[in-house]
Fold:
Amino acid sequence: MTSLLKGLRVLELGTLIAGPFAGRIFADFGADVIKVESPATGDPIRKWRKMHGDTSLWWYVQARNKKSITLDLKQEEGKEIIKDLIKETDIMIENFRPGKLEEWGIGYETLKEINPRLIMVRISGYGQDGPYNKKPGFGSIGEAMGGIRYLTGYPDRPPTRVGISLGDSVSSLYAVMSAMMAVYHRDVLGTNKGQFIDLALYEAIFSLMESMVPEYDQFQHIRERTGSTLPGIVPSNTYLCQDGKYIVIGGNGDSIFKRLMKAVGRNDMAESPLYATNDLRAGKSEELDEAIEEWTKTKTLKEALEVLDSFDVPSGAIYSIEDMFQDVHYQAREMIQSVPVEDLGKLKMPGIVPKFSESPGDIKWAGPKLGEHNEEVFGNVLGYSAEKIQQLKAKGIL
Structure:
């Protein structure tokens, strides 16, 4: 099958998470992703968390299917090479602090003169303008300013975080989506024009905040932390089972609610007009949760799931990574795949999301060694001679 994004070239000038995760998604679906790294250090994520020798296991996932080249962008020749690469590039991803590329002489205004079809995705903490634009911005700060940290946790405890780099990852998804919109504008609509996309971490998170803006506008309502419940949508919570494990149940649809209450032996609540709609149930969450947990405490997690499945009620266990490895559905959907890694044999990593019927993504190789594709890219893409490549290496540019 032909790769979905075959022929699309992406230049990744970014480190850690937001830019590189976007690059990974492009690479998963067949784009030619060229990752530019510092010759001295490479992407810091090469050294983050659990290591295999001197390489992070995370690196093998985050940089899979990409080609690694090295360039010293502080040297003039390094910047000139970027300009050469831009001539052959469809999309460029960068997540430096605003103004850094301009300081190096390779900002959008300069690069679009070289390639007017260039689409540049610029990911930063606060965006390319505004009073905060020069402040350092990490995903954690974007989560805080964007609103999700304020809502995460229990009302009697300090705000907490989600256990992954959510701000960066959501921004990455926006980066890919917006870049492909720009490709559509350029190639399908036939404008033949590139553009730059200004993506702020805090705005990516802020966009997820559901009805908070109009609720505050009209009622000055400030949504607060509610722990494991979903405010205003009842019942939807986490419940303790007999074996000390927890089950998540979503019984908030009116017909689902009836099936749920019958499953837990509360036909009286299922048929009562007092609970017929979500509006009526919203003020009765505590008594409903108490009735449901009174039942779950009499069942093991497995037993509770079996009963709720038989009544067609949305429910699930809270999975650890060990649970995911053992789950038959994960296996059937190929969501954990094995990829060869030198000196390691096969390394398991997350599968491809989403799944296309005609042009599915593929994991061709794990994250490469630093500069592994220098000769291929500089020789085949840019047409540099072997002698020129050796000269660039001697100068420390590669």
